[in-house]
């Protein structure tokens, strides 16, 4: 018997109903299920099913934390990079998962260490300015060695998965999502050096707010804290990544073509 947890986007039409119908189907086939609502902790289960879009997938993976629990994304929104199946395909996808007819695609995540807390990012961590019309000065270190001080609207530290999110919108590089690397991209840098850096996954990135500026720390779209001058943040590859359930061959380039309407020319 397997236990399946459903994480449902509260504002996606059809999500709660799909969770109820699929839970009934699972029970009829001898399995258990539960629905994780806002504020709930995720117990140890055999599979997490994310019903929503990429944002719901990010939330689901955050709930999993560092545990090796696979996550299956069901697309209830627009075309996403992370979701795997459409709502009408869910029962068949669960049949295939329970029969072992799937593969796990491992995605690198980042540990974002701030104070005594550690947050996990599948897409990115962002340090950004708080005041419109001003920049923030951010000192970047690599493995403890100073590299550059940015005067910018912000700084994105992304995984390869996150390279097609905020990083892409500010013209950062696109990385294959199963690659292991750390991508550092300034946002509207007020300086000549405004290029992205693609670092080895084993390197440690440090960012410190300088002078009298304050910055906001945002991890996978969730506000974490306001940072005072002198407050350091360390980012490093997590020891364990995120396991996404896949049924076919890798299709990142197909999704990329569809997302941007790329032609065959």
Q: Topology of this protein?
A:
Elements: E1 3-8, H1 15-28, E2 32-36, E3 47-52, H2 54-64, E4 71-75, H3 90-98, E5 103-107, E6 110-114, E7 117-121, E8 124-129, E9 136-142, E10 145-152, E11 154-158, H4 166-169, E12 181-187, E13 197-200, E14 205-209, E15 215-219, E16 222-227, E17 232-237, E18 242-246, H5 252-260
Parallel strand pairs: 1-2, 1-3, 3-4
Antiparallel strand pairs: 5-18, 6-7, 6-17, 8-11, 8-15, 9-10, 9-14, 11-12, 12-13, 14-17, 15-16
* Secondary structure: number of strands: 18
Principal-axis shape: elongated
Helix content: 10-25%
- Tally of discrete structural domains: 2
Mean pLDDT: 93
Count of DSSP H/I helices: 5
Query: Segments where pLDDT lies below 50 for 5+ residues?
Result: none
Described by strand count, sense and barrel closure, the largest sheet is: 6 strands, antiparallel
Query: What Rg, in angstroms, do the CA atoms define?
Result: 20 Å
Can you tell me the CATH architecture of the largest domain? Answer: Sandwich
CATH topology of the largest domain: Tumour Suppressor Smad4
CATH superfamily of the largest domain: Probable inorganic polyphosphate/atp-NAD kinase, domain 2
Structural class: alpha+beta
What is the top-level CATH class of the largest domain?
A: Mainly Beta
What is the H-and-E element order? EHEEHEHEEEEEEEHEEEEEEEH
Strands ordered across the widest β-sheet? 7-6-17-14-9-10
Which range does the strand content fall in? 35-45%
């Amino acid at each position: 018997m397997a236990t399946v947890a459903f994480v449902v986007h509260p504002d996606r039409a059809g999500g709660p109903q799909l969770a109820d119908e699929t839970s009934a189907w699972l029970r009829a086939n001898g399995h258990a299920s539960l629905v994780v609502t806002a504020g709930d902790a995720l117990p140890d289960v055999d599979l997490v099913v994310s019903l929503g879009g990429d944002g719901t997938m990010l939330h689901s993976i955050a709930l999993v934390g560092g545990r090796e629990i696979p996550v299956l994304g069901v697309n209830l929104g627009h075309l996403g990079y992370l979701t795997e199946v459409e709502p009408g395909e869910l029962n068949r996808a669960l049949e295939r998962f329970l029969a072992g007819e799937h593969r796990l695609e491992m995605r690198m995540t980042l540990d974002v260490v701030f104070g005594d807390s550690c947050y996990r990012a599948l897409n990115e961590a962002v340090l950004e300015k708080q005041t419109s019309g001003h920049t923030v000065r951010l000192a970047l270190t690599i493995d403890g060695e100073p590299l550059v001080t940015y005067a910018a609207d912000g700084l994105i530290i992304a995984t390869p998965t996150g390279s097609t999110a905020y990083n892409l919108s500010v013209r950062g590089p696109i990385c294959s999502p199963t690659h292991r690397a750390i991508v550092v991209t300034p946002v509207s840098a007020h300086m000549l050096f405004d290029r992205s850096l693609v670092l080895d996954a084993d390197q440690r990135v440090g960012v410190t707010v300088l002078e009298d500026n304050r910055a906001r720390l945002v991890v996978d779209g969730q506000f974490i804290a306001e940072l005072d001058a002198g407050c350091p943040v360390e980012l490093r590859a997590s020891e364990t990544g995120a396991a996404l359930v896949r049924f076919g061959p890798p299709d990142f380039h197909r999704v990329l073509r569809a997302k941007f309407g790329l032609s065959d020319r």
